[in-house]
């Protein structure tokens, strides 16, 4: 959802324009194949040329596309300026925005895990073994499922209820922030662990950080603020 919001809303001047999925497809096609004719775009999307007329006219009017007779469509100045925040998210690495993870030992009880969630104000706990290697995650949903109707659940170790690595979507420190957004959107998760595999084997990596939607939203707000200040200086 977060990725979809970023990709479907483009800031133009002081207004935010929401584009349709077909308009976004047209922008992507022009970005890859410019200059490209209306007929070629229609063929790529499997529709008739008249069907695209209103979409192309709107994109040209907004400055997202430019058109030259007998040449075709290419990206406009507005698209290039509005895509700068996305380019920055693509250029920034996860290590620049990751937060400090809340690690717990795999022997920790479910009772203590619940307390840790509240005291650390955490959405998810990262579970590590005796060698401090990442072995899984525990979410409030995991803890709720095990405690409902189970009187002895409080004493169960989190290793019995956690989602185990490698069955977890994760990031590497050198991944782009945009890649983190894509993974969150694709897998519908609110946060992702940042891991570094051991040289001797891929299992039980070291966890170095944590990226959440809150991290991303704060970063996007900072980028937007810097952009607005820059516009005021012009």
TrEMBL record:
<protein>
    <submittedName>
        <fullName>CBS domain protein</fullName>
    </submittedName>
</protein>
<dbReference type="InterPro" id="IPR013196">
    <property type="entry name" value="HTH_11"/>
</dbReference>
<dbReference type="InterPro" id="IPR036388">
    <property type="entry name" value="WH-like_DNA-bd_sf"/>
</dbReference>
<dbReference type="Pfam" id="PF00571">
    <property type="entry name" value="CBS"/>
</dbReference>
<dbReference type="Pfam" id="PF08279">
    <property type="entry name" value="HTH_11"/>
</dbReference>
<dbReference type="InterPro" id="IPR051257">
    <property type="entry name" value="Diverse_CBS-Domain"/>
</dbReference>
<dbReference type="InterPro" id="IPR000644">
    <property type="entry name" value="CBS_dom"/>
</dbReference>
<keyword id="KW-0129">CBS domain</keyword>
<feature type="domain" description="CBS">
    <location>
        <begin position="162"/>
        <end position="226"/>
    </location>
</feature>
<dbReference type="InterPro" id="IPR036390">
    <property type="entry name" value="WH_DNA-bd_sf"/>
</dbReference>
<dbReference type="InterPro" id="IPR046342">
    <property type="entry name" value="CBS_dom_sf"/>
</dbReference>
<feature type="domain" description="CBS">
    <location>
        <begin position="92"/>
        <end position="154"/>
    </location>
</feature>
């Amino acid at each position: 959802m977060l990725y979809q919001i970023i990709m479907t809303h483009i800031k133009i001047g002081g207004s935010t324009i929401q584009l349709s999925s077909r308009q976004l497809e047209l922008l992507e096609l022009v970005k890859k194949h410019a200059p490209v004719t209306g007929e070629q775009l229609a063929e790529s999307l499997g529709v008739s040329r008249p069907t695209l007329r209103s979409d192309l006219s709107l994109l040209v009017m907004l400055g997202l596309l430019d058109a030259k007779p007998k040449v075709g469509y290419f990206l406009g100045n507005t698209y290039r300026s509005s895509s700068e925040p996305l380019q920055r998210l693509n250029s920034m690495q996860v290590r620049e925005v990751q937060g400090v993870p809340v690690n717990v030992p795999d022997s920790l009880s479910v009772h203590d895990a619940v307390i840790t969630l509240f005291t650390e104000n955490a959405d998810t706990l990262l579970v590590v073994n005796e060698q401090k290697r990442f072995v899984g995650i525990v979410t409030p949903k995991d803890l709720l499922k095990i405690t409902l109707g189970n009187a002895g659940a409080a004493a169960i170790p989190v290793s019995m209820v956690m989602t185990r690595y490698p069955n977890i979507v994760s990031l590497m420190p050198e991944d782009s922030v945009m890649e983190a957004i894509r993974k969150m959107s694709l897998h519908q998760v609110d946060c992702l662990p940042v891991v570094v595999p051991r040289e001797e084997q891929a299992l039980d990596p070291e966890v170095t950080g944590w990226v959440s939607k809150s991290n991303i939203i704060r970063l996007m707000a900072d980028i937007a603020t810097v952009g607005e200040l820059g516009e005021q200086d012009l």
